[in-house]
Predict the 3D structure of the following.
Amino acid sequence: MVGEKLLEAFAWVDPALVDDARTAAERRGGMGRRALAIALAAALVLALGTAAYGYFSGADWFKDWFQNRGREPLTQGQEAYIEDAAVDVGQSVTAGGWTVTAQTALADNYDLCVKTRIDPPAGADTADNYMLEDAVLLNGDGKEIRFSRSTGDVRGFQEAGVFYCIWSLSVEPGSGGATFLNVRPLTLEFGKIKTDNETVAEGPWRFELDLPAEGTKAVELLDEPFPCKGRTVEDYTEAGVVESYYDITLLSLQVRPLRIQAQYRSEREEKFGDGLTISVVLKDGTVVPTGTRGGSFGSHLTDCSFELAAPVLPEEIAYIQLPAGYTVPMPQ
Amino acid sequence: MKDGQIVDLYWARDERALAETEAKYGGYCLAIARNILSDGADAEECVNDTWLGAWNAMPDARPNALAAFLGKITRRLALDRWRAKYAAKRGGGEVPLVLDELAECAPAGEGPEEALAARVLAEAVNAFLRSLPPVEMGVFLRRYWYLESVKDTAQRLGFSQSKVKSMLARTRRKLKDYLEKEGLL
């Protein structure tokens, strides 16, 4: 009975998601008159053009976004970092009647977040959300830079009737030494707009990103292999998740403002459900969780990266929290 | 009263915990039970049993999300009652409809391996839900966690019923694709 099995599996959905579904409905339910006000405000922003756009976007938007994602107020250091690193792009390209605007970007040496707005042609039947796909990253010579994409925010979303899509990218180790900040100009090109699996428009939509010349460097926390534990889920019970741990050795743990890169060797071949759960604990006690884990299963050696829910600055970090109570302190 | 204070009352074995829980979450849990059971008296009994379940679970449990914790107990009790009372004739509440809809998430005539551990499926469902945009995730959970009717979800979120139905159908297809991709179907 497939339906029964899935219905049972739904019982074990993360309580935070269940609560989100409950409160999201309440938030939305209270929006009647506010929705009209937002629509009017949006119309006003459009009418005022680029100047007004600048006022409502950029660092402030990223602050809200990261705060919602991390579920904790940002520290002063985090806010200052976003203000320094976020740049307004403000470039619009129209292809096939679809206008894509790269509104703002937040970049460090190896990680890049770009907020894009998608405007369908007038009168088009609109879907719930759109995704930008087939992205290519080019350096000044038109040569492609290899990157990996976070899967955490792959899908686009809609806010007050306007469609957005966030792209979070990381340069891959085999990128020939390129970083987001030392390549000028850095060209980001999208090939398709999709909704679900259906292509609704083909580009290209091409943007030249002028990012700050310097960013916060990555910090390596380990100077020798660090034996610790990976986490797996044994069972779900009424009292909660029953976890167990298995032996791993961390070979490298590198912290960047937007991401943590970890390489570890496990004593057993990893399977679905296994993994390293990591969070960053700041000196003021704030816990910054990590989202998507990139990496592979079915291997003894894993190289994976964790997208941080909100940016972290090395000087604000107290330690990195690993499964089973293991911690790695930040080097002084 | 804040959730943390209510949980503290449970941990102190203070019976005011039950009154406070009922005052704050009685309507919420009753709505979940009513989604599952068409009989109002059955639903109310489930809610009363929920308070007993919470009393027995705390301590040791210290839930971070009290609403979801209580809702989960109600959901389980109501589904158990539905199975005992209605399953044979597939009557009552939203359950038969939801079961039929979820059956679409596997190829016809096939299902997840019997031997497949529930934990793996649960992990996969969690990972899938986290990949969804918030509104789609909310609508999906409203239907398959809260077992809310399409009509009620549409009213609650200010959508048309057809929009909710099409969102659910699309998300079910995506879940099917996801489970296939993960090798779970």
The mean pLDDT of chain B is 81. Chain B has nine helices and no strands. The two ends of chain B are 45 Å apart (CA to CA).
